[in-house]
Structures are given as structure tokens and as C-alpha cells.
Amino acid sequence: MSSFDYDLFVIGGGSGGVRSARLAASLGKKVAIAEEYRFGGTCVIRGCVPKKLFVYASQFHEHFEDAAGYGWTVGESTFDWTKLIAAKDLEIARLEGLYRKGLDNAGAEIVESRAELVGPNSVLIRKTGKVVTAEKIVIAVGGGANPHAALPGHELCITSNEAFHLEKLPRSILIAGGGYIAVEFANIFHGLGVETTLIYRGAEILSRFDHDMRRGLHEAMEAKGIRILCHDHIQSVAKATSGGLEVETMNNGQLAVEQVMLALGRDPYTKGLGLEAAGVATNERGAIVVDAYSRTNVAGIFALGDVTDRVQLTPVAIHEAMCFIETEYRNNPTSPDHELIATAVFSQPEIGTVGMSEDEAAKRFDEIEVYRAQFRPMKATLSGRAEKMIMKLIVNAADRKVVGAHILGHDAGEMAQLLGITLKAGCTKDDFDRTMAVHPTAAEELVTMYSPSYRIKNGERI
Ligand code: FAD
After folding, report:
1. Looking at the annotation, which residues are catalytic?
2. pLDDT category, 1, cuts 50, 70, 90?
3. Which domains does the chain have, with CATH numbers?
């Protein structure tokens, strides 16, 4: 008989926390999980899911335009933001219910409260003031949007959190940031008819992605009418006398907009969590330091998901949770595999990617082959849309392995999932060449690029 109240106490009911609690409970462990806001966490409540619903909503005006080329006459269309928000909220509530049900069915105790550590095996339930003990504790509290507190006027700005609940759609918005959240929201707002500007201090949006994807998306977004200001940042935000906001930028003077959204990265949500009381070590960014098995420096305390600042993606948090269960409760030590994570940017057009960018591969290997195709997708022929699709495979010349695959264009995210399997399996370019094309698709380009577009040897393009 354990002397603890619980075998496992999970702090945080998001992607990683819910998976840990549900699986441990289904294995017969006595489990409690605390959530201070809503079960489902960032992904379900104010991240991946509502964002993707917004992406769908923002694409319709192009669908209506494209329809004309195919013989359709679409009547006058209007968009109702409040209807979208209401429909989105219903769906999110449904999903939250499923998360709770899953926990309930597995036998985990649901604690609707903030929880904080007060010792290595002790947790304070804020709502009741009760301290409970657990043999093991999983910290899965995620992260929060960087509020950029040093920026004068930052309190007048919104983050992605508020973007999901705006009472009305602004006429114009300035989005600061060059990461995927900034880029996705720029496309969402533009697609819904908002005059949109993106401001980013770097040379090009989406650092760490392949340069053709970055440049190609930048051009496509500008062609749609999104203004992109690189090499620039906001110096201050103030209320304008005429209503709206006045933004002082470093290089583009003053901008007048109705809303400013900051998408400047996400910080681990560890403040006030009681990590000092338990002796849990963090790094300079406030992220919890863990080993290859998600173990913190304190025996019995684990951390996973965004709070560890390894790879901030939902499937990664879930995978880390499953590895924790394998290791701790199934006697099968398994450390999370962070290699070759396929991912997407739900921009318009989308980016789907897995593996190394061209620049990264050129640094890593003596010689690489780059296969690159740029073409107008079939759907755009009759619709008359000028959009181009780019597909790229990066191959290590020494062993012919495909080490990177990148797509810019419709359904790139869906394709990236399948490409992820091929790269994970270690497929070579010859395997791609041996694979029959699916015709007529855009994806067939991936198996019909027979000769390299160019090679890079010892850093030189040949
Ligand atoms: P979270 O899901 O953030 O869950 C942490 C939970 O802990 C929260 O519910 C929080 O309320 C709770 N909590 C915090 N402190 C306490 C406490 N002390 N006591 C009790 N509860 C607490 N990832 C993708 O893979 N694909 C995408 O398309 C994608 N889009 C995104 C879009 C946006 C706008 C954002 C913000 C994120 C997106 N992400 C996406 C990232 C993804 O949401 C996160 O990587 C994922 O949710 C991390 O899961 P987690 O379990 O670590 O934390």
C-alpha cells in the first residue's frame, strides 16, 4: 500500500498532461490531473484546433473567386465573424467534453484548479488549499505567449489568445513576428478581409525553414495583398486620438492600425509553479530541464511538452507523454525521438516539411543533390489563380538518402505527414524513383523529379 495519496499527479490538462493521466489511469494507477483553465490545453482551446477552423473560414473568399473559372456564378457573399466565433466555440466545447470523458472513463480524478508544487512529492490544490501527495508528478503546464513587457504600449496589443475571442473583426491589423503563428494569423486575417501587415525584425519570415519555402511564401502572401515589413520592429504602441492605435516602427515610420497582435514566441509557463520549493531546475528561459526520459533533477518529478522547450508541437507533447508511460509504468524504457518531425505551416499557401533545409544539409554533408520543381497546380489553370507550387527533395549524395522534403502549396501539410514516414524509414531517392506516380496529382512531382536541379559540393553550388 502506497503511503502517497496518488500514484501520479499531473499538473496541466493539455496535450501532454491529459495523455499521461489517461494512460496511467487506464493501467490501474491512482491518478489526479489538475487544470486551471480548460481541459484540452493550448492545442484544443486556443491553438491548433481553433486556428485551423479559422484557416478554413479565411479560405472561402478564394474558393468563391476560383469557382467562376469552373463555370459557377456565386451570388454576393458576406462574412459574419460572430457566427464563426460561436460555431468555433461550440466545437471547442465539444472537444473539451471528449477530453474530460476520456479521463473520466479511464478513472483519473479531475481537479479543476491551479496546482503548484510545495515539495518533491507534494502539490497544493489552489482552489481548496489542500495539499496532496503523489509518488510521481508530471509537470505539463505548457507555455504562454511572450507579452513583450518591455515594449511601450504592449498592454494595448493582443496575442493569439485574444485573437480567438475578438468581439469584432478589426479593419486593419499589424502582426509582429516571423514565426508560424504570426504568418498563419496574417493569412487568416487577410483572408477574412482585414488589411494586414506583418512586421518582422529578421531578414525573412520563418527562420529555420528551407529558403525556397520562406521566399516562395513571402512572395505569395505579398501577391495576395499582405504587406510584409522585414528588418523592422515595433518601437511603441499608443492609442490614437481618432481611435485605433498608432505604432512607431524602427524603419517604416508611423503606422495607424486598429489592432496590433504580438506573436513573438512562447515562454514556458513556470512562474509561480513552486519549482523552487521542490528543487526543480530550470534553464535561462524558465524551461524545466529534463533528461532523455523527461526526468527532472528531482526524483519522481517529470516534465513534458512545451514547458521543457524541446519542440513546441502537440504531437511531440503527446509522444513524450507516451514515452513517460512506457518507461515508468510498462517497464520499457523509451526516450522521446525528436528526429525528423514532419510539420506544417497553415499559411496560404501551406508549407509542409520534414527533415533538413537545403542550407542545413549543405553544411552537414560533403555533397547534396537538390531536386526542385516549381509549377502551377492544375486547379489554378481554369481558376486563373497565379499561385505557384514548389516541391523540393534534398538528397545526401553519399548514400542517396532523402534527408529533407519541402512543399509549398495546397495540402502540403497532408503530404508532409506521408513524407515523414518515408524519411523516417530511411528511404533513398531511388525508392522515390521506383514509386509509381498517382496521376493527376500535384504530389506526383515528388516521384518524377528524376535529375537533380543542382548539386552542392563542399558548400559550392555546381
Ligand atoms: P498545453 O497544451 O499548453 O497545456 C498546458 C495546460 O496546463 C493548459 O491547459 C494550462 O491551462 C494548464 N496549466 C498551466 N499551469 C497550470 C497549473 N499550475 N495548474 C493547473 N493547470 C495549469 N502545435 C501543432 O502541433 N500544430 C499546430 O498547428 C499548432 N498551432 C498552434 C497555434 C497556436 C496559436 C498556439 C499558441 C500553439 C500551437 N501549437 C501547434 C502548439 C501546441 O498547442 C503546443 O505545442 C501543445 O499544446 C503543447 O502541449 P502541452 O501539453 O505541453 O501544453
Report:
1. 439
2. low
3. 6-145+267-329 (3.50.50.60), 154-264 (3.50.50.60), 343-457 (3.30.390.30)
